[in-house]
Amino acid sequence: MSTKLTEQVTFYTEDHEWVTVHGELGTVGITKFAAEQLGDVVFVETPEVGKVFKKGDDMAVVESVKAASDVYAPVSGEVVDANAALADKPETVNEHPEADGWFCVIRLSHGEELSGLMDKDAYLEFCKGL
Amino acid sequence: MADDTHDDLKRTPLYDLHEKLGAKLVPFAGYEMPVQYPMGVMDEHKWTREHAGLFDVSHMGPCFLTLEEGIGGGDEAHAKIAALIETLVPSDIAGLKQGQARLTVLLNDEGGILDDLIITRPLGDEAQGSLYIVVNGAVKDQDWAIFEKALEGKAVLTRADDRILFALQGPEAVDVMSDFFPGCEELKFMHHMPFELNGTGCIVSRCGYTGEDGFEVLVSPAAGLPLIDEMLTDDRVEMIGLGARDSLRLEAGLCLYGHDMDGSRDPIEADLGWVIQRKRREAGNFPGAARILAGIQDGVAEKRVGIRPLERAPAREGTAIEIDGKVVGVVTSGGFGPSVDHPVAMGYVAAAHAAPGTKIDLMVRGKARPGEVVALPFVPHNYKR
With bands split at pLDDT 50, 70 and 90, how would you rate the model's confidence at B2? Predict the structure, then answer.
């Protein structure tokens, strides 16, 4: 990373997506809890760069041996990058769901949406209740 | 993820074991069944292909049909009970040898498939006049009602779905099984033997639905629970869930009832013509014979085929199959094949496009993905012939 480190904060949704916000960009993936629930990931359909999503839209698809699951946009915005490495190594989502297993980067159009998401402690508490 | 309440679901005698082993339980065929254990679908699948996987299939419908007059009448008694069941299925049941089993299909009047089932002729003259039959769990009540209607006054149906039915599948299954059931290693594919275990009778059949060598065992809960506990202490044996059962049978090119066949498909469309032996074809005395025999003679409009998605995206059930923008078929089972390490599928296509090598488009989420019609199975069968 050559850019100056800005403060990064990660937010979570009840549908088990995470978004790590750095400036106007947010890196998006699915949580460890979601990855464990899915089991072995065999395919990820990441969104195309340039696509614009509203919060809650179907944004990506993650497939296990048994089933396909939708991944929803945790915030509104435009996709500026997608994780091409998942095409050959979908198992990265199981191995490092909240790091190398990221799906895409979104340029946030409605930053205020973040206030409706959970922080890490609240999310972990939420998972305990499931 | 809402917490499902499973109030109306039944449990097999192995339910407590599944819970103890940390299985993920899901509703299936009216039962709470293990879809996977902590090992996970991918590794459970591979374990079965390399070692021995133990599957609880007690949700299925094992039963016995027995002549009203009782058993023991030798070949004549077998001919009588076979004639009764042959009014419902197109396979040669009369011609089974003692101890032999056959896969067959239960037909509606139009020749459509109501279920697939295995019918076994018992061993020993004293046991003739009865048949051991295993039907699918999801439709067992339907099947048994059909049996009882056809047998009325001539034979009785005894359900055995309060027992444990388990399968041990994989290349090491035979070595494990022969420790517990000495002599079972001599069985050939689709043959069975009765055994005594702790004073109760059980049935050991060399069959299964994974494409591997293996066995299915029908046993009382009292004798079966300690048996399975002991089998699981063997390092070669792991419990395997329904998730891997599905990917194993799909790689083996085997049909799943309600998906790859149903009441609208006849055995020729389903590419199961081999279940109709020549004797029955010549006699033509089974439900829907006119349609089925016409299909054999003139061909069918649509046929079940193997499908290989050529990219990494699986093509799931319901995926449309197109050629040059025109729909020519539909995927009926699709997922990922852990042993072949690529997506695998089956489906129905117009007969003109059913030849292996035919290039097709699989319409996955609105996008055409390249695929190819291929010969089944995806992995060679490993049966003990």
Answer: very low
Task: Give chain B's length.
Answer: 385
Mean pLDDT within B293-301: 97
Question: Residue B155: which CATH number?
Answer: 3.30.70.1400
End-to-end CA distance of chain A: 37
Report the gap between the CA of B5 and the closest CA in chain A (Å). Answer: 13
Residues B365, A61: C-beta atoms closer than 8 Å: yes
3-state SS assignment for residue B64: strand
Amino acid at B72: G
Average pLDDT over residues B51-69: 97
pTM of the model: 0.94
Query: CB distance B335–A65 less than 8 Å?
Result: yes
Residue pair B229/B218 in contact by the 8 Å Cβ criterion: no
The SS3 call for residue B304 is: strand
Give yes or no for a contact between B134 and B165, defined as CB atoms under 8 angstroms apart.
yes
CATH no. of A15-106 = 2.40.50.100
Task: Give the pLDDT score at B241.
Answer: 98
The interface pTM score, or ipTM, of the predicted complex is 0.87
**Which neighbouring-strand residues pair with B197?**
B200
